Amino acid sequence: RAAGLSGRKVEYAKELAARSHSGELALHDLHALDDESVINTLVSVRGIGRWTAQMVLMFHLGRPDIFPELDLGVQKGIQQLLGLRRLPSPERTAKIGERWAPHRTVAAWYLWRILELPE
After folding, report:
1. Quick count: other Cβ atoms within 10 Å of Cβ 93?
2. Cβ(81)–Cβ(113) below 8 Å
3. Are 52 and 66 in contact (CB under 8 A)?
4. How many Cβ atoms from other residues are within 10 Å of residue 76's Cβ?
5. How far apart are the first and last CA of the chain?
6. Four-CA torsion 110, 113, 114, 118, nearest 10 degrees
7. What are the backbone dihedrals phi and psi of residue 113, each rounded to the nearest 5 degrees, phi first?
8. Is this prediction's pTM over 0.85?
9. What is the pLDDT of residues 64-109, one digit of tens each?
10. DSSP state of 87
11. pLDDT the model gives residue 3
12. d(Cα 9, Cα 46) in Å, to the nearest integer?
C-alpha cells in the first residue's frame, strides 16, 4: 500500500505472486506459448484482464503482432488518423487493426505517438 496500490490491487499482486511461487502459474514459460495462450493464462489470475495480458505480450515478450483494441490511446489514435467523429468501438478498432498485421504492435506504437503530434 505504501507504493500507492489500492487494497484490491495488493490482493491481485499477492495472488499472482502466490500462484507463480507455487508453480501453478509458470510465468517463466510464457515465452513458449502462442499469443492467445499467454492471454488465457494471464487472465486466469484475478485482477488481470485482456489489456494487461496484451501489454505483457508487447512489452515483456516482444511479440510483433499484438493490437490492444481495448486501449484508449490506440482508439484515440485511430480516431485522429482516420478523422472519425467518435471513438471506434473495441470491435471496430480490432477490425481496423487487421490491415497492419503482422506488425500490429508497431502500428499501436505509432497510434500512441500520433497523440503527441501538434494539431
Report:
1. 21
2. no
3. no
4. 17
5. 40
6. -150
7. -70, -30
8. yes
9. 999 999 999 999 999 999 999 999 999 999 999 999 999 999 999 9
10. P
11. 82
12. 10
Q: What is the DSSP letter of 65?
A: S
Q: What length is written for the chain?
A: 119
Sign of the torsion angle spanned by Cα atoms 40, 41, 42, 43: positive
Least Cα distance to 55 among 65, 64, 66 occurs for 66
Catalytic residues: 71
* CB contact at 8 A, 47 and 15: yes
How far is it, in rounded angstroms, from Cα 67 to Cα 58?
9
What is the longest distance spanned by two Cα atoms in the chain? 51
**pLDDT tens sequence across 45-57:** 999 999 999 999 9
Q: What is each CA distance from 75 to 12, 40, 58, 89, in whole angstroms?
A: 27, 23, 17, 8
Residue with cell 505480450: 57
Phi, psi of 55 (to 5 degrees): -65, -35
